[in-house]
Design brief:
Length: about 600
Amino acid sequence: MDSYSILYSSSQRTELLARFQRLRSAGRMCDVVLETQGASFPCHRALLASSSDYFWALFGEAAAERLALRVKLPALTPVGLDVILDFLYSGWLKVSDSTLPDVLEAARYLQVETAVSICERYIMDELSAENCCVYANLAEHHVLPNVLEAAEDTVAAEMATLLQERREDLLNLNVQSMMAVLETEEIPSVKEVELVKLALDWLSENGPIPLLQSNLLLSRLRFGLVAPVDLTHLSHGNKAMGTPLIRSQVTRALEYHRMGSARPIRQSKQSKLRATDRVLLVGGSSNPDCPEQQVLAFNLKSRTFATLTSCLPSRLRNHCVCSLGGFLFVVGGELVSEADGKPVSAEISNHVWRYDPRFDCWQQVAPMLQRRTKFTCCVTDDAIHAIGGQCAPTNGDVNTTLASVEFYDLEAGAWRRGAPMPGPLYGHASAELEQSIYVSGGLSDDPGTDLIPGQTQSRKEVLCWDQKGRLWRKVAPMSIGRFGHRMTSVRGYIYALLGMYEPFSDIERYDPVADHWTRLRPLLVASFGYGIAATPTGSILVFGGRKWSDSREVALKSVLEYEPKKDQWREICHLPRPLTGTECTLLPVPD
């Protein structure tokens, strides 16, 4: 058999379509006429059948219309049919916002799936606040799941703008999309009470609808995020809010608001914020002796900072922060009084403040049993543990170092005494892992004013509080004695970072299964007084701090990220200003 080559000409198909288009324009050799709403379109039966599954079946051997000279398509508009015919004859689809519904209807009806795909891409590229509701309805009508999801995501993301400028578009949104939007975990810059009002207005505008659908729609609202006075007002006299299901949800929400101190441990989806976690940087300043009251929120995705509208109620240093149940707790530390921007005095505090991002408000809760500074706190078993530290001196001028431990019982709204550590500690660090608390380093007594020689007193010892056994036990010590350092847990390991008097930047990792510490890649800068947070993706962030430069302390603006899998540090961005003495925790905070 002779060998041969197969060569392809891309211009042949283009030229073939161009010739058919010229024949159509001249009305030559056309053997069928398509009619709709008084408009006629002479066409070629062979090209239609080869380009559309609808026409392939229509002109098939078994079809009654196979020899028809005229075919009526009353379901289509002349605009939509004309655009699709141009596409079949040329490969070009002419579409705009005004013609898209007609074109998509024709493409779907005539089963021209390539044109449908082009319309999908067009919608995805053009989605905005101006058209997302219209496109969601269009995608729902034509069963375009990917487009529908994208349109609903845009509605949720642009909700603040839509409520203010295009509320009518929202009221015309189809019921499935409205339910999907109200199910969204993040709706930026919109209070839940506004979503409740929108849902009730939508029901009024589109009603009456079946009771099941009404309940399904309203049950996606989070009544725990609505203030009791607003919730009572909206429920009064509204038939949709009076069904047994919705009434029970409103009742549970009102009961949640009355729980007081127990609210953080009585969370449900109805009280969960529609927001993603931010890293909160609480307190600190460029001068460690003059703390500020600002709270910064770091967006993990955009790597940008925003300032909370509500400031810390007091100027604090050496305090602790933690999050529980979507609430921020600021515990103890030193209350700093200032005059003319300079610190006048610092009083060790036992105050505990709780911040609720749902309503952007601070509340003072039960104080600790002991005033504490340079201590540490951890969250475990729905309780906050305050461990060690220093309190005001009973005799003389030297602070008293503490071994005591206490925990905040949120159910009772009171602090309880816990089992004390084997010895007093301050300047230590702690981390929680699998409901056990690990405490490392620190000093057991005051090193005096000359701190550099005192670095030999920094401890390597690591203690573990065993929740089951209710006792403190020693585990493998760190390789470095540390004071004023940080610890955090990430994916089954504990990481200890450099502290205040270490002349090097080493960090190390503890494996609780092997009871062993491993040295890791050092930090980029030997600093102290920084904030630290472990992200949901498993990386560790270090915010600001200060370092020694030319025999003086300099505050830093850097934000460093450590990736445990790669054992690698990198600088990812900068703080708005130099910051030291800040305390960090993750908390869902709305934009």
